[in-house]
């Protein structure tokens, strides 16, 4: 095992453990901080893949903007999070089954690639400018990534609209009922 593979395994373990902590932590601020750790581990994986531009975008956009926006949103909302009982879902077994099927599919896919465990990845271009230029043209090329890029932008717009709906105050009748219960 090379040093790069060892760093990758440690980074992957940190990413998986922190991702589990994101969904398992009952406190939203702590979950958002675990999300920052997860996104940082993904940035390290990009660096290991010699994709410095994508690592920088990961840090600037996801850690620097989205994760901090989530933390501010959680801190600035006026709704009080009250424990309403157990947070476990009754269909947890279905989620585990789907995760195992997805994992099996990934293992089967990797088994078809010859010598994937020996780290014989194709060499990347020597110039970082070529990678950035190729990424830019790939995002607007109808034959490559323009549809997933647009779907991601619509998904982010829907998340923004959903957060506005959740954060806005309710009807005046709701506010008067909340005032009576306090």
Descriptive report:
With 182 residues, the protein is mainly α. Among the domains are: 1-78, Up-down Bundle (Four Helix Bundle (Hemerythrin (Met), subunit A)), CATH 1.20.120.1200; 128-172. It is 73% helix and 0% strand. The protein has 7 helices and no strands. It has helices at residues 3-24, 28-48, 52-76, 92-111, 128-140, 146-167, 172-181. Helix 1 (3-24) runs antiparallel to helix 2 and helix 2 (28-48) runs antiparallel to helix 3. The longest helix has 25 residues, at 52-76. The protein starts with a helix and ends with a helix. The model has no long low-confidence stretch (mean pLDDT 77).
CATH class of the domain at 1-78, named: Mainly Alpha
> In CATH terms, what is the architecture of the domain at 1-78?
Up-down Bundle
Mean pLDDT, to the nearest integer, reads 77
From the spread of the alpha carbons, the general shape counts as globular
List unreliable stretches of 5+ residues: none
Q: Briefly note the CATH topology name of the domain at 1-78.
A: Four Helix Bundle (Hemerythrin (Met), subunit A)
Question: How many beta-strand segments?
Answer: 0
Q: Would you identify the CATH H-level superfamily of the domain at 1-78?
A: NADH-ubiquinone/plastoquinone oxidoreductase chain 6, subunit NuoJ
- What is the element string, with H for helices and E for strands? HHHHHHH
Percentage of residues assigned to helices? over 70%
> Mind summarizing the main beta sheet?
none
Report the portion of residues in β strands: under 5%
Alpha carbon gyration radius: 21 Å
Structural class: mainly alpha
**Distance between the first and last residues' Cα:** 61 Å
The number of helices is 7
